[in-house]
Design brief:
The complex is a heterodimer of chains A (about 1150) and B (about 280). With about 1150 residues, chain A is an alpha+beta fold. Among the domains of chain A are: about 90 residues, no CATH class; about 180 residues, 2-Layer Sandwich (Beta Polymerase, domain 2); about 160 residues, Poly(a)-polymerase, middle domain; about 140 residues, 2-Layer Sandwich (Alpha-Beta Plaits), CATH 3.30.70.3020; about 130 residues, Alpha-Beta Plaits (2-Layer Sandwich). Helix content of chain A is about 40%, strand content about 15%. In chain A, the strands form eleven sheets. Chain A has a six-stranded mixed beta sheet with strand order 3-4-7-6-5-10. In chain A, a hairpin with a 2-residue loop joins β18 and β19. The radius of gyration of chain A is 36 Å and the shape is elongated. Chain B is an alpha+beta fold. Helices cover about 45% and strands about 15% of the residues of chain B. In chain B, β1 and β2 form a beta hairpin. The chains are: A alpha+beta (about 1150), B alpha+beta (about 280). The interface between A and B is large, with 105 and 94 residues. Chain B: This is Ribosomal RNA processing 7 homolog A (S. cerevisiae). Chain B: InterPro entries: Nucleotide-bd_a/b_plait_sf, RBD_domain_sf, RRM_dom, RRP7, RRP7_C. Chain B: Pfam families: RRM_1, RRP7.
């Protein structure tokens, strides 16, 4: 409500109460879309409408008070109190309620739309009324139609005996969700239905598509006149559309009104007058197709006719149920939004708004909903009900049994259809188009939505209603079919006659049913769900032949795997010499083997890989099974479709080394670490070791290139040996060995009071401890290397780098003595760094390791995310890798619109989506491991975030171990980095989503483009000498092999480790030129460094000492001397600092465009 | 120099504009003289630095005022050797001290063979050049600024080789030497600690004039946390003496406060929604 109106209200109240009341109530209706929350609430919720008036009356008394308190402070007024109370009872929280209100405001059809449509509908009615009867035409002679430039929108039956004579509709109806005020989407669709007079039909029209042909002709005839009328927006065309993807029931689609051209779309269909065809003739067990005698029932054909017959009655039922119940309408809108975000309400066999409305009406009827429920409660009840019921076994029914009518039994329905929901007449199955899996998917999504609702954290609302989840993001693997030819060939070869006849040759539904059945059977318990992504409803011009029978667009079949079984290498079947065993053998053919198992049983089984296969390869077993099934059972070869899921798996392999993947190395590391940690504990040292923690990313399974047991053979050629260590050689050409990482450990010593207070002295003491540790390990015949900062121990090929932590360290670094002589502890740069390394990182490593064990996809997703970010040249300085891991962890832990997938690719797509669409300025990241942070603390963190936003880092990440949220991201990433990443992410996501469904093997190589970045955003590019890039083998384009060999277990030589001149050089540049420029490079084998000058450096200044660094004096246009930035000075500096490293430096002549 | 054509173009442009400045005497900058440096003899790039006679209030005998010149805005790659090289034409350079900012004292040095207690100076830096004789320093400061001084007479030192040496040194430490250095350092440290303690104790004893220094020894450590704890305890005591929710007006007030809080929370939530709305969060499609 505008302040002005509030003002006038208050004045009105004090003047004359009765007059003001009427004014208030009058104005209320106009204010439907306004933002004033208390008013809206009473508008939205019927039960309180009684209270509404009362509250306004009490307003009269409290009018003055309300004005005073309207500014958000002080005691709430009466109706605010009522509102708060209501929120408490009917909704979860303020925020949730407000969010629902906002969403509804955005989604409800606007008042003006209804007005415009009503006006158009009146004109349409007159138009329909003025249509003239036509001559009688033979159905097999359609010249009259062709003359008008219209092609009949369905395929005619072979025996086209019959005649068509148009007569004007006896009635025109509006229906569908729009009429009930529960339509969503843009454009919104409005259904207009013409009722065809019974005189047009004969009883025999129910056979062999004759009725459907007449219906199509009827619409075509109307289209002739509609084309010439002023009922469509000039410049737009009327088209045929296969509504719900059903080719048998084409409709007309048009844009009704200039003003709503973009927002509204009218769908015109036709139904026969009620009472002419008997409903009993369309029960599922009857056959109405006479041309195929061998088929004894045609349930789907029957249903598609029956749907028209019962339409009027069903509309009436819904109209009765919805009527004026605004909450029910709101709930229907919310559910429609929810379904649409998951694309569950599109295509043939979708769970569309009609089914939702019917089910809501059904729940009303069975008293599971009542009139006083808020939209939120209805939602909850709806999801609860859906997640508990199974329509594939025991579907609901709206029909009431009466004595004089014998309705078909539910069993009959279940025999003929996958999913059953009987309408109010008792003859029609509302869900006849649904397949089993489409219902199971909706059921599962309901359970998930309910979960999110119960979780009720800040993101759950977003996850349920606002996040659009494309099909590719929802499943582990997706099969994409494009080629209509492939589909129709598969159907010709392997579709049962029954299906082809029943679906009257509609390719898509038949194909879906075959494939769904095949995959469900073949994948068995590897699979938890199949999902179907139908192409959008086909539309075609009036003059074209229908495109709806063939596949038109992309058909996607998603596989949601069962993480427990999907990776198993063997499918154990029934034992042999049983009927089941024979059937199993027949199904799998040559793949089937007889195997003896450990428990002694001998069974038929299929072996897909041996036991030593790495996890990365095991993930791909599913692909092999699917390929086998499709090619052997329905003759679809792998080249004719695209299998989405492993296009990026190359990045999750150590492709330069034979048969290794990062995961295997990490597992090996864990095993060695356990033994090594025991070794450490067993040492006899002056001070006992209390704990040993690993802080390397490999321990968390998130390192793209983890340390391995084996070492590069190349080292032997290019390194010298001195004592127990390999050392670098200075002469020669190809001399720097490849980069080898270490495993970093943090070792905590027991508490002792003897540590000195001086950090310098402590460093010496720690070094002395390193010497002791090395000595002790040498006794155990392990090779060691001591430096002043750490000691390296070689155990089973891994180089463990040990850092000692002692009790007083952080305290010593923090200690200050203030002016009053009081000892204080304050954070310093060094103390924070030490605390991070010795306290926070070990904790976080533990938590992330746990996550990687719980979610199989976590590690590989982190790897992809890290490689993506680093391939766009954001290294540690710009985006700490631990922050990447935390963001991925956040994605796994926070409310997600759909369940977590187990294949990394779809999780990576979701990561890109998160990076591109999240506004980090308003959204705090709270990584809640194991739900350790309770709701109050969470709310506290959010409040802290909101009140201190300006002082907090651009990316705020709180964890249970650091609720301040600044620890990991205080210095980076900066806002420009986040903005650039968001742009890159949306471009990458678009590229992925376009490329992934492409058939054949190319998509993988095209996708690698997502991992390359242009060098144009930078002012200068430093090209490095390839020789010094010791991590060159980690680059994405690297194809060669790097032979590796295991070391002898004891007393091997310690390889050259951690020697990375590129990162050293970048650090050097950053340390020296941090005031002038930023440096960007790809740590994984990048050989170019991008230089971006800072804006404050690029501006010219007066000649001052403070700004003289790196600038040159020049005469400005006005003759005064000023300081100008001097890129050539910097460039020469880079060259001299990088002597022997830099090949050349290229200055970008066009200027940088970073953002 | 790099080969790209653009560099050449830019060069031309800058020569056109800078030429008049080149021939003139360069402007002064807050009392500093602007000097030209070149990395190599044939390098086209000129680096500008500031120079001045060294004169400060706090004296340091290693930086004698009349013989020392003060340079600032030196590029990061300038080494001690190169700066000696550049200024040797004016006379013998005795000492070069680098700092990250002007300082009258001497830069701290690393005394240990193994431990780097003082990190090297990073970024653009300042330097103090001490000449052998006064007139050499004068000559240096009065030299015409249009001829750039050349820093490196040959190739600059290889960074890669430096790092290789560093790595090899680390990988093959002389452990015995390290041990003995640590031992001696710790012995010295203990010694100094002990003597500090002794001197403290001595203070407490009667001095020559018969005075005794008395320090308060309450047994409570002088720490901020302890201090805070004491204050907190006092506050708690004070609160216990007050009656809460006893009088009717207090009860009424607390109820009111509760309601106000409820409303405040609501307003906060509303604000958050408005914020979300701003970022067009509620457009579902």
């Amino acid at each position: 409500m505008t302040p002005l109106r509030k003002e006038s209200m208050a004045i009105g109240k004090t003047l004359e109460s009765s007059a003001s009341e009427s004014e208030v109530n009058g104005s209320d209706d106009d204010d439907f879309d306004d933002d004033d929350v208390p008013d809206l609430a009473s508008e939205g919720d019927q039960p309180v409408s009684g209270v509404k008036r009362k509250s306004h009356e009490s307003n009269n008394v409290a009018g003055a008070k309300k004005r005073k308190t309207g500014d958000g402070k002080g005691v709430p007024s009466a109706d605010e109190l009522i509102f708060l109370k209501e929120t408490e009872n009917l909704f979860q929280s303020n925020v949730f309620r407000l969010q629902i209100t906002e969403l509804l405001n955005e989604s409800r059809p606007k008042k003006s739309y209804t007005r415009h449509f009503d006006e158009w509908f009146q004109r349409f009615k007159t138009f329909a009324d003025n249509l003239e009867d036509s001559k009688e035409h033979e159905i097999n002679n359609l010249k009259w139609l062709k003359k008008q430039g219209i092609h009949i929108p369905i395929f005619l039956p072979d025996n086209k005996a019959g005649s068509f004579k148009f007569s004007k509709p006896i009635r025109v109806l509006t229906g569908g969700p729009f009429a009930r005020g529960a339509s969503v989407g843009s454009p919104m669709t409005v259904h207009v239905t013409m009722v065809m007079p019974r005189t047009m039909f004969k009883k025999s029209d129910k056979f062999d598509l004759l009725y459907l042909a007449k219906r199509a002709l009827y619409l075509s005839h109307v289209a002739i006149y509609l084309k010439q009328s002023d009922l469509i927006v000039p410049g737009t065309d009327i088209k045929f559309v296969a509504l719900n993807g059903d080719a048998l029931k084409p409709c007309l689609v048009l844009r009704p009104n200039q003003k709503t051209a973009k927002a509204l779309e009218v769908i015109v269909s036709a139904v026969p007058q009620a009472g002419f065809f008997k409903l009993t003739q369309f029960t599922p067990e009857k056959s109405n197709i006479t041309t195929a005698d061998e088929v004894d029932c045609t349930p789907h054909y029957n249903s598609s006719i029956c749907e028209d017959l019962v339409l009027e009655e069903n509309e009436k039922t819904l109209q009765d149920a919805f009527g004026t119940n605004q909450n029910l309408k709101d709930a229907a809108i919310l559910i429609a939004v929810w379904l649409k975000q998951r694309s569950l309400s599109e295509g043939y066999g979708s769970f569309n708004a009609d089914i939702v409305c019917h089910y809501l009406a059904h729940m009303m009827k069975t008293r599971r909903l009542n009139l006083s429920m808020s939209s939120n409660q209805i939602l909850r009840a709806f999801w609860l009900d859906l997640s508990k019921s199974d329509w594939t076994v025991d579907g609901p029914s709206m029909a009431t049994d009466t004595v004089d009518k014998v309705l078909p039994s539910k069993e009959d329905f279940h025999k003929s259809y996958d999913v059953v929901f009987v309408d109010v007449t008792g003859y029609h199955n509302l869900t006849f188009r649904l397949t089993k899996s489409s219902f199971l998917k909706v059921k599962r999504e309901s359970a998930h939505a309910l979960n999110l609702l119960n979780k009720a954290d800040t993101n759950s609302f977003q996850a349920i209603f606002l996040q659009n989840t494309p099909f590719l993001h929802q499943y582990d693997n997706v099969l994409c079919f494009h080629d209509a030819e492939v589909v129709s060939r598969a159907i010709l070869s392997s579709a049962p006659r029954q299906l082809s006849v029943d679906f009257c040759l509609q390719n898509v539904p038949i194909f879906v049913r075959i494939v769904e059945k095949l995959l469900t059977k073949g994948l068995g318990d590897r699979l938890s769900l199949v999902g179907i992504g139908y192409p959008t409803d086909p539309r075609w011009d009036l003059s074209d032949s229908p495109t709806s029978y063939q596949l038109n667009g992309t058909l996607m079949i998603g596989l949601k795997l069962n993480p427990d079984n999907a990776l198993s290498v063997i499918d154990k079947g029934p034992s042999s010499n049983t009927p089941e065993g024979d059937e199993f053998r027949q199904f799998w053919g040559e793949k089937c083997q007889l195997r003896r198992f450990k428990d002694g049983s001998i069974s038929e089984s299929v072996i897909w890989a041996d036991n030593l296969t790495p996890i990365g390869k095991r993930r791909q077993i599913v692909q092999r099974i699917v390929a086998f099934l499709l090619s052997s059972k329905i003759g679809v070869e792998e080249s004719s479709y695209s299998f989405v899921g492993f296009q990026l798996s190359r990045l999750n392999e150590l492709h330069y080394a034979h048969k290794r993947s990062p995961e295997e190395s990490c597992i090996a590391l864990h095993k060695t670490f356990t033994r090594f940690s025991q070794d450490l504990h067993d040492l006899t040292l002056p001070l006992e070791i209390v704990s040993v923690h690993c802080i390397s990313a490999a321990y968390r399974f998130t390192d793209p290139f983890p340390p391995t047991k084996s070492h590069f053979l190349e080292n032997l050629d290019v390194c010298d040996v001195q004592g127990h260590s390999q050392v670098l050689r200075k002469d020669g050409d190809n001399l720097i060995p490849p980069y080898a990482p270490t495993v970093d450990l943090v070792v905590q010593m027991s508490i002792s009071g003897k540590w000195p207070e001086d950090p310098k002295a402590c460093r010496r003491l720690v070094a002395a401890f390193y010497l002791e540790i090395a000595k002790a390990f040498n006794k155990n015949h392990l090779t060691t290397q001591v430096t002043t900062d750490y000691v390296i121990v070689l155990k089973e090929g891994f180089m463990f780098r040990i850092f000692l932590a002692y009790s007083k360290q952080i305290g010593n670094l923090k200690k200050q003595i203030n002016t009053q002589g009081l000892k204080q502890y304050r954070d310093t740069e060094e103390s924070i760094a030490a605390e991070k390394k010795f306290i926070n990182l070990p904790k976080l490593t533990g938590a992330l390791y746990g996550l990687s064990q719980f979610y199989l996809a976590f590690g590989p997703t982190c790897v992809l995310a890290k490689r993506w970010i680093s391939s766009h040249l954001f290294h540690e300085t710009h985006f700490p890798s631990i922050a990447v891991e935390l963001l991925v962890a956040y994605m796994f832990l926070t409310s997600q619109s759909t369940e977590i997938a187990m294949q990394p690719l779809s999780m990576f797509l979701r990561f890109l989506k998160m990076m591109s669409s999240t506004n980090w300025h308003v959204e705090p990241v709270i990584v809640n491991f194991n739900d350790t942070i309770d709701k109050e603390t969470c709310a506290g963190i959010e409040k802290f975030f909101n009140t201190n936003r300006e002082t907090l880092p651009p990316l705020f990440i709180a964890t249970p171990y650091d609720t301040t949220g600044v620890l990991w991201t205080k210095k980076a990433p900066s806002i420009p980095v986040l903005v650039r990443l968001a742009k890159l992410a949306s471009a990458s996501l678009r590229q992925c989503e376009e490329t992934l469904p492409l058939p054949g093997g190319e998509s993988s190589s095209i996708l690698m483009k997502v991992f390359t970045t242009p060098m144009s955003p930078f002012h200068a590019v430093i090209r490095l000498d390839k020789r010094v890039v010791t991590r060159r083998y980690q680059a994405i384009g690297f194809d060669g092999k790097m032979p590796m060999k295991k070391l002898r277990t004891s007393m091997g030589k310690i390889s050259v480790h951690g020697f990375d001149p590129v990162s050293k050089y970048v650090t050097l540049l950053e340390e020296n030129y941090s005031d002038m420029a930023l440096f960007f490079y790809n740590p994984y084998g990048g050989d170019e460094i991008g230089v971006l000058l800072k804006p404050q450096y690029l501006t010219g200044t007066n000649i001052k000492v403070s700004t003289f660094d790196g600038r040159k004096p020049e005469t400005a246009d006005d003759g005064n001397a000023i300081l100008k930035p001097s890129l050539e000075c910097l460039v020469e500096g880079f060259k001299i600092l990088g002597a022997d490293l830099v090949e050349e430096i290229i200055v970008n002549s066009t200027g940088a465009q970073f953002l | 120099m790099g080969k790209p054509q653009f560099k050449q173009v830019k060069k031309k442009k800058s020569t056109v504009r800078v030429e008049p400045v080149d021939s003139e005497v360069l402007p002064e900058c807050e009392g500093y003289k602007i000097m030209r440096l070149k990395a190599f003899k044939d390098s086209p790039t000129v680096h500008f630095v500031l120079a001045k006679e060294h004169s400060v209030r706090d004296k340091c005998h290693r930086k004698p005022e009349n013989r020392t010149i003060f340079l600032r805005s030196l590029p990061p790659f300038v080494t001690e050797e190169s700066i000696r090289n550049a200024f040797s034409q004016f006379g013998t350079v005795v000492d070069v001290f680098f700092h990250s900012s002007p300082s009258s004292s001497l830069p701290p040095t690393n005394s240990s063979l193994f431990f780097e207690d003082v990190p090297p100076v990073k970024g653009f830096k300042v330097a103090y050049l001490v000449f052998e004789k006064e007139e050499q320093a004068n000559r240096a400061i009065l030299a015409p600024s249009d001829v750039p001084l050349v820093l490196f007479s040959e190739k600059p030192p290889s960074t890669l080789n430096h790092w290789i040496d560093e790595y090899n040194g680390k990988a093959t430490l002389d452990l015995d030497a390290l041990r003995s250095e640590v031992d001696s350092y710790m012995a010295d440290y203990d010694q100094s600690q002990r003597s500090a303690e002794m001197s403290k104790k001595e203070e407490e004893e009667e001095d020559a004039d018969g005075w005794v220094t008395v320090t308060k020894k309450s047994g409570i450590p002088r720490k901020e946390s302890v201090h805070n704890k004491i204050i907190k305890r006092q506050n708690n005591k004070l609160q216990k003496t007050q009656l809460v929710n006893f009088y009717r007006f207090q009860i009424r007030e607390s109820k009111m406060n509760h309601l106000t809080k409820l409303k405040e929370k609501f307003e906060e939530d509303k604000k958050r929604i408005a914020q979300l709305k701003e970022s067009r969060k509620f457009k579902p499609f």
